[in-house]
Amino acid sequence: xxxxxxxxxxxxxxxxxxxxxxxxxxxxxxxxxxxxxxxxxxxxxxxxxxxxxxxxxxxxxxxxxxxxxxxxxxxxxxxxxxxxxxxxxxxxxxxxxxxxxxxxxxxxxxxxxxxxxxxxxxxxxxxxxxxxxxxxxxxxxxxxxxxxxxxx
Length: 152
Prior knowledge:
Layout: H1 2-22, H2 26-31, E1 36-48, E2 51-55, H3 56-59, H4 62-65, E3 68-71, E4 76-80, E5 93-101, E6 107-112, E7 115-124, E8 128-136, E9 142-150
Antiparallel strand pairs: 1-2, 1-9, 3-4, 4-5, 5-6, 6-7, 7-8, 8-9
């Protein structure tokens, strides 16, 4: 009986120490490899001249769907063209900006110079990044956009 309890304790400690060592920080999860957009949904539907949009990803051009989003540990991010370009003259890197987390790493701030967006982090693990941003249009309507990314 003592051997069984001792073996069980050793097994639990070994599992706990291994999982603790293998855990990645949010910065490591965000910056370990690039991301591509796989979903973009508006709530309530975004009102445009062409009608209401709920699933923005569904109407995106293929040349936008394969764009690559890189986050670097230095706090810089880049958005780059994927395999296809909407125009042959499009720059390879079409946006460079800065990013940071809030203190408890539940929000991601990213943007360019004076234009920084605040994203709620809904999910960040080794496979998926899901962000939600709230914004106001020119008619003072509030919208949320939830974006999901995965590694290419």
